Amino acid sequence: MRRIAAVVLALVIVTALEFWAPPPAVRGQAVDVYINVTGGDRSRKLNIAVPEFTVVAGTDTALAKLLASVVGNDLTLSGLFSVVAASGAIPANNPAALEQTWSAFAAAGAHAGVHGLLGIRGERLEAEMRLYDLTTPEYRLIASRKFEVAAPQSRRLAHKIADEIVLQFTGELGVADTKLAYLAGLPGAKEIVVADYDGAAPTAVTRNGSINLSPVWSPDARSIAFTSFMNGYPDLFRLFPFERQRPVQTLASFVGINSSPGWSPDGRFLALTLSKDGNPEIYVLTVATGVLQRLTRHAGIDTEPAWAPTGQQIAFVSDRAGQPRIFVMDRDGANVRQITTGGFHTQPRWSPKGDSIVYTQRAGTHDLWAISPSGSTPHQLTSGQGDNQGASWAPDGRHLAFQSNRNGRWQVFVMSVDGLTTTRVTQGTTEATSPSWSPRLP
Amino acid sequence: MVTRAGHAAVMSLLLVGLIISGCAKQPATTAATAGPAPAPAPRAAAPGPAPSAAAPAGSGAAGSAAAAPASTARPSLKEFTAVAALKDVFFEFDKYDIRAEDAKTLDANATWLKANAENLVLIEGHCDERGTNEYNLALGERRAKAAMNYLVSQGVQANRITIISYGEERPVCNEKNESCWGKNRRAHFLVKPR
Questions:
Q1: Is B62–A247 a contact, with Cβ atoms under 8 angstroms apart?
Q2: Does B17 touch chain A (CB under 8 A)?
Q3: What does the pLDDT look like over A391-409, one tens digit per residue?
Q4: How far is B19 from chain A (nearest CA, A)?
């Protein structure tokens, strides 16, 4: 408690300086890390108060309530905060009432407070986030920032505010303003759905009545590569979920399987699995030209390419050692090395920071494991709760989405990599599988 | 009698072993390259600024326009039907080699196919739900391919055969036990007139 107060105090000094400097500097210079997100005692959380937003233009108090609750949920899912909520909005332009509110929250143990000011202007929504340090006697303003979205995207306002708060306390933007793509449906009939990262507002983006598999967001968060049997054979396609009129594009429709799309970090290339030359091998497709480069040459199965964030290496699955294992090769297919041993390992996913590869181990049940790209220190991320597989990294490298049947049917969950927070995010009546966590939205 | 049967079993095992190891060690391209000169470079991506080639594929109207190059290699799946004479073959978990008892099934399938040469053959490769989707799609492909290679080794023309993998996406049995999983790990045969 004392230490957190001291930390917040240090934060106030640094960010207050930053904040009152020219506004554009705030994001670029959020330098020091105030919450240590990669080590130390991460079970200790910062208590943050998120009262209802104050409506400063318009009349939608339900929206003001919703936004506060979404911000609170985002901060909880971040794994960094313990949220103190309260009902009743703070009146607009009333410093005394504001101080009274913070005083009550501070007495209840809150270290920080978020005041949201919501303006509803026709088709536009804007919100100002003001972040206060409740450990100082004067409830010092730490930061403030305005966001604007189109009315139908109201939840994004809350997500952007939550991400800004995470930025203020950690030095890195949060991941609330992102989407999940996943499969909804049973074997034989799976459609791709896009939802907010917290599972809200699920929307089907394929409706072809066929089998759709392996959705993967492109690095610009504008398109999703996927495998589909919509034309009979398993081909690779790309859809544009935010451009309704834009047709699905065929990426590969060779004889055999066209599967397992893996985007290069710059989005110019797609690694994929084709069996056109006899058996499943990994190729790299130059997306703009259709030029193919073959990377693997082996009689066994080679599949599931996953790029390192540097773009210099690709992890993949091969059964060349008997059971499927995780291998790493250079971008051109050279220098193949095996990094996992002694198990049945699939679904490698290279972390956005580059320091870890998460994969699925089958040992009776399926569980998520992580290993360093050099093959050292494998460690288990899930255990004892049904099957857990199909991981996808959040852009912050601190969270994973995955599918689990721990409650019966397959659903998508989000966990912090440290294992402290795991939350089910899909509530569908059907099965939800194969999540892909989008990059931060543009 | 017993001894002779034993010998016969051993012989056929050896024979199958030879065939299988032959298949496994080669880069499995034999049948493919011997097959119908696969259509010239099937359509790869053409995402750029809307080259016309992208249109038919993208609009889903690939059927008629794109059928010409693709049809030899990828016949329409629509009219393929199962026939009682062609039996499924099954696989061990995470394996794609043909077991001795299944070799006999494939021998019978080959005999029927040679006697009914007017038919094209579609071999579907399937997996059980264990393992994960993308890997199973590759595994199903290998199973279909192993069945195809065996049929070709028995004299069925490679250019009559098309393979497709459904991975774990089309189970015939939905319980979570070995009896059910074993039924799902299969190669399934369908035919249609040329």
A1: no
A2: no
A3: 999 999 999 999 999 999 9
A4: 15
Tens digit of each residue's pLDDT (9 = 90 or more) over A287-311: 999 999 999 999 999 999 999 999 9
- Binary contact (A280, B142; C-beta < 8 A): yes
Task: Specify the pTM.
Answer: 0.84
The verdict on A87 and A225 lying in the same domain is: no
Tell me how far apart the alpha carbons of residues A215 and A260 are, in angstroms, rounded to a whole number: 9
In a domain, A66, yes or no: yes
B26 contacts B152 by C-beta, under 8 angstroms: no
Is the model's pLDDT at B106 over the cut of 70?
A: yes
Query: What is the span of the domain harbouring residue A211?
Result: 179-437
A232 with B141: Cβ contact below 8 A: no
How many structural domains are present in chain A?
Answer: 2
Give the span between the Cα atoms of A174 and A145, in whole angstroms: 15
B positions 99-128 inside 8 Å of A (CB): none
For residue A442, being part of any structural domain is answered with no
Q: HSE (CB half, 13 Å, CA atoms) of A71? A: 35
pLDDT classification of A4: cutoffs 50, 70, 90: very low
Tell me the CATH number of domain B1-35+70-194, given options 3.30.160.60, 3.30.1330.60, 3.90.226.10, 3.90.1280.10.
3.30.1330.60
- CATH number of the domain to which A71 belongs: 3.40.50.10070
Pairing verdict, β B186-193 and B119-126 = antiparallel
Q: Is any Cβ of chain A less than 8 angstroms from the Cβ of B130? A: yes
Residue of B124, B127, B134 to mutate, testing the A interface (most A Cβ within 10 Å of its Cβ): B134
For residue A144, is it within any domain? yes
What is B117-176 written as a DSSP string?
Answer: TTEEEEEEEE--SSS-HHHHHHHHHHHHHHHHHHHHHTT--GGGEEEEEEETSS-S--SS
User: Closest residue of B to A226, CA-based?
Assistant: B134
Among candidate residues A114, A137, A170, the one where a domain is terminated: A170
Say which of A248, A253, A280 has its CB closest to residue B42.
A253
**Beta-carbon neighbour count of residue A267 at 10 Å?**
16
